[in-house]
C-alpha cells in the first residue's frame, strides 16, 4: 500500500489489462459447453 503513489501512472494500464484478462476468462468459461 505504501508503493501506491509512484505506480499511479501504470495503475490505469494494469487495471485495464486485468479487466481484459477477466473478460477473456469469462468469455472462455461461457463458450465452454457444460
TrEMBL record:
It comes from Manihot esculenta (Cassava). It comes from the Eukaryota. This is Uncharacterized protein.
Amino acid at each position: 500500500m505504501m508503493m501506491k503513489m509512484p505506480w499511479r501512472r501504470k495503475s490505469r494500464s494494469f487495471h485495464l489489462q486485468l479487466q481484459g484478462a477477466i473478460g477473456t476468462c469469462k468469455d472462455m468459461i461461457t463458450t465452454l459447453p457444460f
